[in-house]
Task: structure prediction
Amino acid sequence: MRRCLELADAAPGRIAPNPRVGCVIVDARGRLLAEGLHRGPGTAHAEVDALRALGGEARGATLYVNLEPCAHHGRTPPCAPVVAASGVARVVIGVLDPVPGHGGGARLLRRAGVAVKTGVLAAEVRRHNRIFFTWAEQGRPYVVLKAAMTLDGKIATASGQSRWISGEPARALAHTWRAQLEAIAVGRGTVLADDPRLTVRLPPERDGAAGPARGTTDPVRVILDSHGTSPPGAKVFDTPGALVACRRDVAPRRVAALRARGAEPIFLPLQGGRAGGAGRVSVKALLRALAKRGLTSLLVEGGAELHAAFLAAGVVDELRLFVAPLVLGGQGTSAGPSWVGGIGVSALARAPRFVLSAPPQQVGDDVLLVLRPAAAIW
Ligand SMILES: NC(=O)c1ccc[n+]([C@@H]2O[C@H](COP(=O)([O-])OP(=O)(O)OC[C@H]3O[C@@H](n4cnc5c(N)ncnc54)[C@H](OP(=O)(O)O)[C@@H]3O)[C@@H](O)[C@H]2O)c1
Result:
């Protein structure tokens, strides 16, 4: 099963909304016969890929796969009947398919006389595909919040300067995350302060060849801008396709100006009556809208108010925080923003609590902390 997960990870680039799946076929004595993987929407599922690699007879063999073989007609025909017809004696499954209407493969195989075992390394298998499971089970993208801060937790100076708090290696790493995750979101405040492009800019390969062409790996850009007042000249609109999350009653001339730049407004309900959120679009409604578009993961890249809104909504699955060896200091108006704005919590017991997912890592001169909510199911 662990080999299935390794194979699954060999799929290049983004394959959303599909899960990462690998498959191993062994003979009755446990000797490897064939391996396969799923390479993305429209391509063979891992079981079919492995059976094709096997070419011939699978009679008496055992097939391992981390996700239940599907029993429905999607972009490709269902896998479970193909597996049953191959003659395998036994199928070992990590977890059942959580997508409504997609499961049933295990039952179909049992009915065909194949011995089926499910739930093997289930927790590890679910964690491995936690982006897919979050999307399929919770109807929202998996949310990664990234910020670069000083030793005293600031993301900008009092005058608004934020470039650059983290060093070059940290910024290069953050660009690889942009290339891996499906979408990227910032608040209107960050568009005004930093005028970011939100594209992927990876350093050239070591052999001197250029990095990936611009646009091929860019995530879907999302700007939270309730009234649609981001300047149409902002760099984030230089390439078409940016999504602007705005209120349903946004002024038509704002919508027209955004559309003229190739941006697409998403009209959303307001955040429920919470102090500090009044009049702003609902983060949860935005996430539902992104999930419906098949976007399974979202990188939140600032600023302070947006971070507060995502944390308050309880939808942050992972924090990736760079801490740079700088101190800005200051109090009140002489202080820059800390990485989380909003109204703050008054009781320690109500503070969202996180745990380290991995040991702190030094990246250049910065320290990377990767954390998940203490109550996370992964
Ligand atoms: N160091 C870093 O990692 C980093 C990264 C990014 C930004 N920054 C810095 O962060 C600062 C900007 O942060 P900021 O807090 O002023 O702005 P922000 O968080 O980027 O944007 C906040 C704005 O987003 C809009 N918004 C829409 N829906 C929202 C919701 N549900 N919750 C919260 N906001 C919502 C609101 O404007 P409307 O009410 O008009 O909708 C709000 O004023 C800048 O100084 C920038 O340089 C630093």
